[in-house]
Specification:
This protein is α/β, with parallel strands linked by helices and about 240 residues long. The chain contains ten helices and ten strands. A hairpin with a 2-residue loop joins strand 9 and strand 10 (about 215-220). The protein is globular, with a radius of gyration of 17 Å.
């Protein structure tokens, strides 16, 4: 039996000034799913994410979270409902320690069972515990990415969004991030992932959406995407 979608977008249109970027996106994310949002740069992936988290008000269409309309609401209100983003570029605070980052944003306002505590985040990323007293600007790029994910998890989100979480990282650190994302999936974390490493994403995600010029041009399972490499070349340049 199909559950009510955790997130649904219907006829989503959005853009910047007089420039329209999204042209009627329709998709749903079910509880516990991991969804890959794919496409070349400039095709509308970031605009989609910005619309979901409240950084950009849709010009038309409907976005619902837990059945409630959230399109055009303020980012803090959407975050309080249980949406957390790990942004491209990490955006760690240079003057806060690792521990302060994780404590400052900690909340379980949705009363989730087995919520993310400081110790549980440290268990996921032991390196953060080792660097607990270091400031944000004293961390490597990989450590900052771990911190950005840990910070998002500390809010105990119902939906976790990752925008290019492995971009610019050394291969060994990328492997660590993918390992942690697989663990989150096992624990039932609903996740929307934007990442250019399609070969790794098909091992993680349940389904994928390919965006081309502001429209969803293909959707399907990881098995279907892995079996049709023509999609990779046509829409992602892989």
């Amino acid at each position: 039996m199909k559950h009510e979608a955790l997130l649904s977008c219907s006829g989503l249109q959005a853009g910047y000034g007089g420039s329209q970027v999204l042209f009627g996106l329709d998709f749903e994310i079910q509880p516990g799913e991991v969804i890959g949002l794919l496409g070349r740069n400039g095709m509308g992936k970031s605009t989609t994410i910005k619309s979901i988290v409240g950084l950009l008000a849709p010009s038309r269409g409907d976005i619902r979270f837990l059945g409630k309309p959230i399109g055009g609401q303020r980012p803090d209100a959407i975050a309080r409902m249980g949406v957390a983003i790990v942004p491209e570029g990490r955006h760690c605070f240079p003057n806060l320690t690792v521990r302060e980052h994780l404590v400052a944003f900690a909340d379980n306002r949705n009363d989730l069972r087995d919520g993310w505590t400081l110790e549980r985040i440290y268990a996921l990323f032991p390196r953060l515990k080792e660097r607990a007293d270091n400031l944000g600007n004293q961390l490597s790029g990989g450590e900052q990415q771990m911190l950005a994910i840990g910070r998002a998890l500390s809010t105990n989100p119902r939906l976790l969004i990752l925008d290019e979480a492995t971009e610019g990282l050394a291969p060994v650190i990328r492997d660590e991030i993918w390992r942690c994302l697989a663990l989150l999936k096992e624990q039932g974390q609903t996740t929307l992932v934007v990442d250019k490493y399609v070969d790794r994403l098909v091992q993680l995600a349940d389904r994928h959406l390919i965006v081309e010029r502001g429209r969803i041009v293909w959707s399907g399972s990881s098995a279907e995407l892995a079996a049709d490499r023509s999609l990779w070349h046509r829409y992602m340049g892989v």
